[in-house]
Amino acid sequence: MLVVMQAHATEDQVRAVCQKIESMGYRAHALPGAQRTAIGITGNKGEVEPGTLEEMPGVQELIRVSKPYKLVSRDLKEENTIITFPGTDASIGGRGLAIIAGPCAIENREQAFTVAERVCRAGAQFFRGGAYKPRTSPYSFQGLGEEGLRIMAEIRDKFGMRIVTEAIDNESLELVEEYADVIQIGARNMQNFSLLKRAGRTRKPVLLKRGMSATVEEFLMAAEYVMSEGNYNVILCERGVRTFADHTRNTLDLSVVPAVQRLSHLPIVVDPSHGTGKRNKVTPLSRAAVAVGADGLIVEVHHQPDKALSDGMQSLYPDQFDDLMSQVRQIAPVVGRTVPAIGSHTSAPLQARSGVQSSASPLT
Amino acid sequence: MLVVMQAHATEDQVRAVCQKIESMGYRAHALPGAQRTAIGITGNKGEVEPGTLEEMPGVQELIRVSKPYKLVSRDLKEENTIITFPGTDASIGGRGLAIIAGPCAIENREQAFTVAERVCRAGAQFFRGGAYKPRTSPYSFQGLGEEGLRIMAEIRDKFGMRIVTEAIDNESLELVEEYADVIQIGARNMQNFSLLKRAGRTRKPVLLKRGMSATVEEFLMAAEYVMSEGNYNVILCERGVRTFADHTRNTLDLSVVPAVQRLSHLPIVVDPSHGTGKRNKVTPLSRAAVAVGADGLIVEVHHQPDKALSDGMQSLYPDQFDDLMSQVRQIAPVVGRTVPAIGSHTSAPLQARSGVQSSASPLT
Amino acid sequence: MLVVMQAHATEDQVRAVCQKIESMGYRAHALPGAQRTAIGITGNKGEVEPGTLEEMPGVQELIRVSKPYKLVSRDLKEENTIITFPGTDASIGGRGLAIIAGPCAIENREQAFTVAERVCRAGAQFFRGGAYKPRTSPYSFQGLGEEGLRIMAEIRDKFGMRIVTEAIDNESLELVEEYADVIQIGARNMQNFSLLKRAGRTRKPVLLKRGMSATVEEFLMAAEYVMSEGNYNVILCERGVRTFADHTRNTLDLSVVPAVQRLSHLPIVVDPSHGTGKRNKVTPLSRAAVAVGADGLIVEVHHQPDKALSDGMQSLYPDQFDDLMSQVRQIAPVVGRTVPAIGSHTSAPLQARSGVQSSASPLT
Amino acid sequence: MLVVMQAHATEDQVRAVCQKIESMGYRAHALPGAQRTAIGITGNKGEVEPGTLEEMPGVQELIRVSKPYKLVSRDLKEENTIITFPGTDASIGGRGLAIIAGPCAIENREQAFTVAERVCRAGAQFFRGGAYKPRTSPYSFQGLGEEGLRIMAEIRDKFGMRIVTEAIDNESLELVEEYADVIQIGARNMQNFSLLKRAGRTRKPVLLKRGMSATVEEFLMAAEYVMSEGNYNVILCERGVRTFADHTRNTLDLSVVPAVQRLSHLPIVVDPSHGTGKRNKVTPLSRAAVAVGADGLIVEVHHQPDKALSDGMQSLYPDQFDDLMSQVRQIAPVVGRTVPAIGSHTSAPLQARSGVQSSASPLT
Prior knowledge:
Helix content of chain A is 31%, strand content 17%. Chain A is α/β, with parallel strands linked by helices. Chains in contact: A-B, A-C, A-D, B-C, B-D, C-D.
């Protein structure tokens, strides 16, 4: 159920409707748009009895929702969600293309800084790196843990890039929330609903990767889990799905970008590294991802891929990443996007360590 | 790395080798077989320096393992793992076919007891029911939680059936471990490695469902995660994989049963309810699962499927389950299996609430 | 559009309705059932103007068909289609399980006779063997052609088994129609509509294999193509579909058997050889196929699989086939089926070389 | 087996080696490159006895081929195959992007001319349209047949666009060869080996669509079938593969473009219309296809999609196609491609109706 407020409804009227909804035992999610505010109701097991809501001051209409997702839906919020990071010019979902780059795993301080220096110079506004690695084998390198997070925080301080890193359970999520700027939920955890809810209770944006065999509806419902707990800053990420095709590790499904953009206001980025699993296909598919209209890229870069502790096969050399950026820079304008020039973004001292401000943030 | 002990090696010699391995900073997993004991070494990042191990008393040979899985492998343990439940004649992996039945979700005491009474009478030795439900939508019924577990514990007390129920995170796992006899890990959590490790530190058998797009290797590696923490009682479960085919909710891949049985000593059961998603296909596929050689079935039964809070479409009516059991009872002998007669199993008071004893249990 | 005749409608009335339909520019397909005859109308581009049909003598009602398939549908013909082979006790779709066995390819007279002798003795009523092989590579062995057909015809004369062999184009189909008893259309040609129509104009039953990525609807529509040309003797065959799973060459989708049986009156057999691609999985999956309710099996057997010119990996040794038959013989009765005893079937001289009579045959 | 000739080998020497190979009972395929000529040997069942070949004048070395494909391979021919069409500036595989556009099916003269006029003006050098339609249902519109071909031939005469149309069997292929410039083999016939061989004996280029579940190897082997008969002008076409994803009709696998380009010298184009099945996704995916490096696009356009006899859902309106071309025109230069300006290409009277000249054409 959605409550659509009148264009001239006051903040007090919105607040009153929200209080009414909560007094009925439901949760209210006020989502202000350019023209009007819509209030999503969740927490109802069955039908919501609209009764008194309809007649409250400032209410325009009540809409029954048939689709299983509500908060992620463009029906609820027509404008794109743009996630901004105060203290930087970086954003995700706006005109600027978000470039997230870095090694698969943080292996040590030297490796991380070497790669960071290069991807920052090439124009990345976000640094990615795994401190907690979900590995198929229990005997593979599982990441440096908090030590890795500390290294990434130093990288933010030095280079001004915002940090994106994966949380794999409640324990790591607590630390990731503390150190990083964006909490990544991996493909294998896309339906770890407990973790999604926990991430929904943090104040940091969540980058949610599509599961290996997730339909668009399941993908959006996973985002809905995060949002239903009050965190509206979700970034979706296509990273390839599993099919019979064996020329790439996964099959990158670029059609999901326009599909998501029709249904949802949330930004969506593409991961051509996991999406192909092969270094020589990362750059062509990065070009394609920008051309199809993605809001950004997340790319693995390593200065010594052959010695990487994980995913070396799909990591670009820094020179290849420079080249990728130069190609992407030419395609972006065709789809109305900008890409930061080389070495252009701020690396000034930051006041707030990892503040985030979203166009989707609720009333307060 | 495997250390194969001589046939006449003493328990002291085995213990000494284990201690040596642990003193080297690794973990030792002693797995006694009919002829000899093998000791798996895990926790090594790279090569294990065999040095002194080879010359210890009782050691026959050291085998380098090339396959990514070790503890699940039939190379390590040739005999089938049979999981027994003291105080009952139920077991999983032995000659007797394990029949696990019950509703998708525990909805209330009356529903649970009604179904339990019927499936028990039909011959099920295990009662399944969800207290924690991983649902695609955050707005769907999520299970009764601990209240559901309590109801199931009462069912064990009254009917003597052992309880199988799903844990979805560390919190629920703690409670499931306390109340239930078998901890189920669902398909969506098959690569929730944090949960797998946590389950590996419990003393209850783990029923691990195959992920929707998991290869056999990934499936076995997930079991390896549980075993690598010391819990050797893992039951694998085929529940259908995701394909293009749309006449069933998932595509039940029965060939995985002989495939797993070649590679691993672990038992494997089949879930034709999720595997097809359609009531009218559950019985034919149950027959097929037994015929292909599965160690058991896990079947959804509900006395009022049309009113079920989840998965009503695929739940059998109790009469249909009777019929299924009667058909399965005729096929089982062809593959050298027995099925308990109607109402035959023990419902005598149990000494140990949920003890478990496995042929795979480590030295103590 | 279906015209359902009254139970007591005369043959003359049926014929008159058919003539009326054809005079309207459509094709009429009279399909007699136990209770009544239904007449399918095909060849219409859009709506059929029912007008005068409704009021003709003997007509009970006109049913608009919303499903894309008509002639294959159980709506049109409630009773199972049973395909019989005069001069033998073999049939497909009736109580007796149809066992089709033989080598992948006919390599030479000696090989074919050696295998034929063994599968015949084990109880197969049908001999399969490829004379025209659709191979992925143009450089692989493509079959003996007409020479292979001649060898199979000799095998029919000597052993009394009916011959099943593949046609890959119009040219080979003409010869296959002449020499064989059942025309096989392979998975790769399931949507070779031109070949399907051509097969629909023959008088021999057609064994139609499911395409590697065919939905049930596409599968049935392919059969509809054959039937729409007047050949109602179609046997469907599940042979595995293509998925991400890599432990078998294809993923055998046994749930398609009950799915097809609900929608269609046509018989369906299972090919566990192509369905798994691995010798050690053929027998378990054969048991499962019979248990799920298939109307028969089609199995590859070779006396020297290691020297086979194609598909050696999945061919059973004759002793393994004996064993398969003995297991299948025990499961069949559970699903109400019979399997011919060892060496029991007729090998008496046959009057008609390859006559066929079907319970689905149209009025004449 | 490949025979690599010396850089300075004469045409006579090449011819002598070819004659020698043919005298040994094999087929020789001379493929001249920029530096040297390589000669592929096919038709061998097993090993080729190199014996005398190695010592013939002009021969540099003999290479045993382990990959199953030979003639399609970049090992055999390093330079890209560029297919040119004398009398026009159109080509496929060169610097210029090949734009193929038109309705799914030719429905009548007026429809075809209306669409042709628009796509020609927008810059398409090739006109596509189906005269023979492979339809899932035998009751759907199957195309106008030769009448459709005649209409397309008129369109070539009037607009100067080259004609691309599908052949579905030997009969239609004969007519398509006569009337059209490029013979399309559809996805459903990708492994109709009989049709592939027949197409290999024509003198017209073949546009070969990837099968719905074809691996790259199977795709290339299908092209090998055509080439092994002597027709070296094959254009590959990605048109989406079948997966579990349901937001598009097929999943467009753009990674196959760089994958094919690594392995083969053949050009590859992308069909975003069938690849997505949804009008609103055709333009974004067209941009992506050009960005990933495809040699061209094949797009469905209809002036009244709602009235189209087939595939209306995925056909662009002419205005949308104009827009697509304008976007593609901006992306092409980034990947070193050119796109003809609006209305720029020749529509001068053509001498040869449908001549074709390929950089891959054999010696003679």
